[in-house]
Amino acid sequence: MIIEKLTPMRPLFLIAAIFGFLAINCPFLYFALIDKETYAVAMGNGMALLFIGEAFLLMLFFAYIIAKSGCRKPGWFFFIVMSILGSLAFSVPLQLYLMTKPKEGQ
């Protein structure tokens, strides 16, 4: 399978997932929970809503690819949950990190 060729890049996937969580999720949570005025203005911006819509379409597309690839662990449902709780900058590298986990006995 092609995904096994990505195993040497596994540490980079973890670093990218952590960076995506810290650089995207933490500021988002700050604005959503503390600076609610800025959050409300952003949610009223048509361009921001287009980017949010694009992110949801990409999330569904990637979940479909994961389901069709036959990956059972962590799977497409886990990817959707991580994308909603986090962001694509977090969930895509995390998914790749978990998918490239070496098999038992390697």
Automatic annotation (TrEMBL):
UniProtKB keywords: Membrane, Transmembrane, Transmembrane helix
Ranges annotated as spanning the membrane: 12-33, 39-64, 76-98
Protein name, entry field: DUF2834 domain-containing protein
Organism: Cerasicoccus arenae
